[in-house]
Specification:
The protein has about 110 residues and is mostly helical. It has six helices and no strands.
């Protein structure tokens, strides 16, 4: 199952970055990364609401764990920035490498 997931990710990412009409107008990789992260936030919020049993409980958990201690969350800025950079580099690599090379480099965590 994991092989199928990784292979389909590579192939769909590559196919989405190729221009079929010959024009060089592709979507921005940063837009794809932001949309992907927004979907993750929405999914996490839904899971948190299910776990706490109510929207109010979810907001209380978010306030307690995230908003009440902003300085402890500052430690996550550097890893989060590097993760965003890595995702953008993956889209760039998918645009410029053939799928097999991209998959090997991605699995070796070089991309």
């Amino acid at each position: 199952c994991l092989v199928f997931q990784n292979s389909s990710l590579t192939l769909t990412m590559r196919a989405s970055r190729l221009s079929s009409s010959g024009e060089d107008k592709m979507y921005l990789a940063t837009s794809a990364v932001v949309i992907g992260e927004a979907i993750k936030v929405m999914a996490s919020t839904c899971l948190l609401v299910m776990e706490t049993g109510s929207v109010e409980g979810a907001w209380a958990a978010i306030y307690e764990d995230i908003l009440s201690s902003p300085m402890s969350n500052m430690q996550l800025l550097i890893p989060a920035g590097l993760y965003t950079l890595q995702n953008n580099i993956q889209y760039y690599a998918a645009s410029n490498l053939d799928p097999a090379t991209f998959q090997v480099l991605y699995q070796m965590k070089l991309v």
